[in-house]
Design brief:
The protein has seven helices and two strands, in the order ααααββααα. The protein is mainly alpha-helical. It is about 65% helix and about 10% strand.
């Protein structure tokens, strides 16, 4: 199987043109693509990516988490003129704190994008700083940022 064939399949899967199973919804497709991305970064091309694979794995892992959270909360966005609201029809738990936690989860990808930008910026402009992404204290600091953002939200 060529790389072009795999790429075309992933694009069609993402756009909803191809279904993996007969009864697949967007949750399953999103989770499947994220798990496929996680698998590829960890096992297929991990030797080519270096430390960058951990950042990509964080994106894929959090996307799987968001897919599961979306399936459990069944979120509906209500927009009326200047009013923006979120309503959930949760499968297991009916709690407004669950809705708040789910909405706070959407701030985390923005923080991950900032960390991603920092990594790529340093790899081009300041390559001597890339080693910080291997430092345990720096990694703890980077992990703490999205957690604090989630809590503050």
């Amino acid at each position: 199987m060529s790389l072009t064939t795999v790429t075309d399949f992933v694009v069609d899967l993402h756009l909803g043109n191809v279904y993996l199973f007969d009864c697949v919804d967007s949750f399953n497709q999103s989770a499947a693509l994220s798990l496929m991305g996680f698998f590829c970064t960890r096992f297929v091309v991990s030797h080519l990516l270096g430390r960058y694979k951990y950042l990509l794995a964080a994106f894929a892992s959090f996307d799987v988490f968001l897919s599961i959270a979306h399936a459990l909360t069944r979120l509906t966005v209500v927009i009326l003129d200047t009013i923006f609201g979120v309503v959930t029809d949760a499968v297991l738990i009916q709690d407004r704190r669950l809705t708040g936690a789910y909405c706070a989860c959407f701030t985390v990808p923005f923080i991950l994008m900032n960390i991603h930008f920092l990594y790529r910026f340093w790899s081009i402009r300041h390559p001597h700083l890339i080693h910080l992404f291997s430092n345990k204290k720096f990694i703890a600091f980077i992990v703490a940022i999205p957690i604090f953002d989630f809590i503050i939200w």
